[in-house]
Amino acid sequence: MSGDHSHNEDQIDCGSRVNDSHKHKDKYKHKEHKKDKEREKYKHGNSDYKDFSNKKHKDKEKMKHKDGSTDKFKDKHKEKRKDEKIKSLDGKVKKEKENGFASPHVKSEPEDDLYHSPKFEKSLKRERDDDYDSEFKPKKIKTENDKKAKKRKQENEDIKSKKTKSKKGEVADGKKKAKQEPEEKWKWWEEERYTDGVKWKFLEHKGPVFAPPYEPLPSHVKFYYDGKAMKLSPEAEEVATFFAKMLDHEYTTKDIFRKNFFKDWRKEMTSEEKTKITDLKKCNFTEMSEYFKAQSEARKAMTKEEKQKIKEQNERTLQEYGFCIMDNHKERIANFRIEPPGLFRGRGDHPKMGMLKRRIRPEDIIINCSKDSKYPEPPPGRKWKEVRHDNKVTWLVSWTENIQGSIKYIMLNPSSRIKGEKDWQKYETARRLKKCVDRIRAQYREDWKSKEMRIRQRAVALYFIDKLALRAGNEKEEGETADTVGCCSLRVEHIKLYPESEGQEYVVEFDFLGKDSIRYYNRVPVEKRVFKNLQLFMENKEPDDDLFDRLNTSILNKHLQELMDGLTAKVFRTYNASITLQQQLKELTTADENIPAKILSYNRANRAVAILCNHQRAPPKTFEKSMQNLQTKIDAKKDQLSEAKRELKSAKADAKVHRDEKSRKAVESKRKAVQRIEEQLMKLEVQATDREENKQIALGTSKLNYLDPRISVAWCKKWGIPVEKIYNKTQREKFAWAIDMADEDYEF
DNA sequence: TTAAGAACTTAGCATATGCATC
DNA sequence: GATGCATATGCTAAGTTCTTAA
């Protein structure tokens, strides 16, 4: 791949999540990694992007802060310090020369794109994509007259009665039945869509499944404090079991985890327990821990029949609670079980790790359903917090969790209409970006020269988001979550500038923790103007100051919205991921390869995207072993091949002597055997390459969230690859719309 | 206009499942 | 039929963006 989308795969491999409190963020050292030639291919870029050549302008670096913005958007606690800095900076830059350019706010869409003025758009906000998306066909606004409404109601009734009827006979052979009569798949993508924010007209469901109640430990399983057995109250015991279950995990050795746990645990203790248990170090949970391990072993050792019984019970629960009726259709619910209580396990250095995640009761639950539906029943003697009928949202059930105070939801499965439509729309927005990305790139390049600091910052940030597929980077409340950043929240300490490094000019080294505390490490050459701007942004700042002190995600997204309707920072990630896949597939697939080789090419294209998006995973624990196993298989296959070749040779010799039909046939069959073994060997070798390359890269995230599935479907169709080789069952369900609609000519 | 809250998407890890091999 | 392994699925945290309230 050519272009400017350079991305250093070094970040993979040294990129384990930094979640050890003792590993301070700026202490991590990166190893230098061998540059695998294969991976070298994955330097990302769009060919249409490479002409960002640097005009050798003399940069007029230090611009006056003409905007005089209030900076209210940055953390208050930093504001004062920052203001002081800005003042001093302003004083300094005023002496410098101005270039006199004001960056124009051009908003022009390609002519083939329908375009409305922002004002007009606002009034039509909910319908915007209907009006814009070339292939995301709007169909007429769905307005139901009474007749239609009645019909719909009748249909809903029909579905309900069908459901109860089938349920009677289903209990015993539920699964079989589902397999025997695959219901006709509903092609929602061929139907009209709602507008004006209405998400559904009819919604009926059975509510959530609660976590099973706490079962006290048998009396022989003891907790010891300071060496003495101690019987805990059920409340305190339950929380103690949460800790005991995690005893083998590294978490329980961390100070913050232990401190938070102990604090919350004490809240559950009786006053007597509280007086007695004052030191976590004196607590001995090992018996509890052993008990749970034994239980888990016992579960594994259950007979087939017992396992079958549990499976059937789960299936019944799924059938009862796992589906809802939304409009005229039975739809699968994604997460119908309420999260059970336990200890909060944040990712990375989370200040709240170890806190008690409390049990959710019916009284915490808000139910959302149709007025004219049969409401879910709370457990006997209990009440819901509220039953509401809001059809402008997609959730069925919600509650507020106690760790961050955020709301959790029960929503539909990705295969549902409501999720599928949104997903489709997401890719259509990304395709619209494709049409105007050149214009947007030209604009932000122009903005690098702006005399307004805020515009320069915005333009450089956008360049990073586009070039490196960085996330937007919202501000986070300090002390509430792990210290992670995205583009707009980058701090000075997260980048290093090298005017020259390893034979390249203007290199920026990024080193920060992103979402989920996954490390982002990358060294990229940037354009001189970007480099100079970064120097300017970093001037007179402390390491923990914001790099882009005049920018936040809301400012950035507001600007993007002006450039293209529906454009946000996230769209760049989707766009760049999808376009990269499409380009890589074109580049890597060759007609004469067999199917396994083509699939390797697909995976490599997918991998290129995963590297671009920094989707990492911890190397599987069994990785080395499984590679070894595979190598053993390969060696065995090689032996088998040479044996087969020997046999072929002798058969040929035999045939030369005898010159009869029998020996000719023998040669033929030996030849076929050699061929077959060669194919098998190749398949294994391909598998080994694929696995090795995938050691620390997670392909799933990009496949599921960033790659327009129609690109993959088209590729499958073009090369005669069964789509099952690319998407598993769940993925095929999620992407049913794409599988149905994309033909081999589809272009992202 | 801005901050807070709500809604929804994206994320990696843990566990369950099911298939291949002995 | 048991075992071991790879893959699929479930779970829920952590993001982004949209919406509402002050």
Instruction: Kindly report the spatial arrangement of strands forming the biggest sheet.
Output: 10-9-11-12
Number of strands: 15
Strand percentage? 5-15%
Structural class: alpha+beta
Largest sheet data: 4 strands, mixed
Low-confidence stretches: 1-135, 137-153, 160-182
Mean pLDDT: 79
- End-to-end Cα distance: 18 Å
| Estimated radius of gyration | 30 Å
Helix content: 40-55%
Spell out the key features of this protein.
748 residues, alpha+beta, DNA Topoisomerase I, domain 2, Arc Repressor Mutant, subunit A, Topoisomerase I, Chain A, domain 4, four-stranded mixed sheet, three-stranded antiparallel sheet, 45% helix, globular, disordered N terminus, DNA-binding, DNA binding, Topoisomerase_IB
Describe the structure.
With 748 residues, the chain is an alpha+beta fold. Among the domains are: 204-211 and 307-416, DNA Topoisomerase I, domain 2 (Beta Complex); 223-304, Arc Repressor Mutant, subunit A (Orthogonal Bundle), CATH 1.10.10.41; 580-741, Topoisomerase I, Chain A, domain 4. Helices cover 45% and strands 8% of the residues. It contains 22 helices and 15 strands. It has helices spanning 37-40, 76-93, 118-123, 128-132, 146-180, 234-245, 255-268, 271-276, 286-300, 304-321, 417-447, 453-468, 528-538, 553-563, 569-588, 595-612, 623-658, 661-693, 700-705, 709-719, 729-734, 736-741, and strands at residues 203-204, 223-225, 228-230, 283-284, 323-326, 329-332, 342-343, 356-357, 366-368, 386-388, 397-400, 407-410, 495-501, 504-513, 519-525. The strands form five sheets. Strands 10-9-11-12 form a four-stranded mixed beta sheet, with no helix packed on it. Strand 2 (223-225) and strand 3 (228-230) form a beta hairpin. Helix 11 (417-447) crosses helix 12 (453-468). The radius of gyration is 30 Å and the shape is globular. The relative contact order is 0.12. The structure holds a DNA duplex (22 and 22 nucleotides). One of its GO terms (cellular component) is chromosome. It holds the Pfam family Topo_C_assoc. Residues 293-320, 627-694 form a coiled coil. Residues 22-34 have a biased composition (Basic residues). It is found in: Nucleus.
